[in-house]
Amino acid sequence: MRPDAVQRVLDAELATARDRRGGEPPRVLDVGGGSGVWAVPLAVAGCRVTVVEPSPDALATLRRRATEAGVWDRITAVQGDTDLLDADGSADLVLGHGLLEVVDDAAAALGALAAAAAPGAAVSVLAANRFAAVLHRAVAGRLVDARRLLDDESGQLAGTRDPLRRRFDVAGLEALVLASGLKLEVLQGHGVVSDLVPGSVLEATPGAAEALAELEVAAALRPPLRDVAARLHVLARRPA
Question: Could you tell me the residue range of the domain that residue 11 belongs to?
């Protein structure tokens, strides 16, 4: 399996959680987990995963994928949104991947994620990057949209069918995390250059896929490359 900057951080966090629990499976809460892109691999790795997702179609896909992987017994699926989270906090790791850019209130959602984590546990957030969206639209020739995204502090193309309510930059995401009471430990990029490399290059060049994966990991923490990644990843900790 090729290395991934986000996966490496999560693997390290889950190893720590497993040690803390005396070898027992870590408890993961995946909010807005959709069809199980993160939940199913985590269950395969031995975690107990609860997925909170408003879409019944996504949950049906999650069940099918988890069943095919033989891990449906390790996953609990709950149809709903952040209002259904356990505010008492019991999860060893809480995921909010692709969540903050679509909810009505990003600050309230992040607060709910923080409250769902056990004291000393971690929250992982993966969010769309406004500056990456500017660059991608400019390269595609959508120059008016690129300028609008650059000028709009929320990073939304208002008045269009933009599926996202907001996009983040490093400073804005960091401020949101700190305001939630979480302690920021990692802020890195995800998809720094991988979206820019044509598939034909990877197919035609021996070792190119492995080289790209290593480049991604190396660039993930290095500004300014981190700051224009397609997505921004945060790992933050709830105070013990």
Answer: 5-32+81-128+168-237
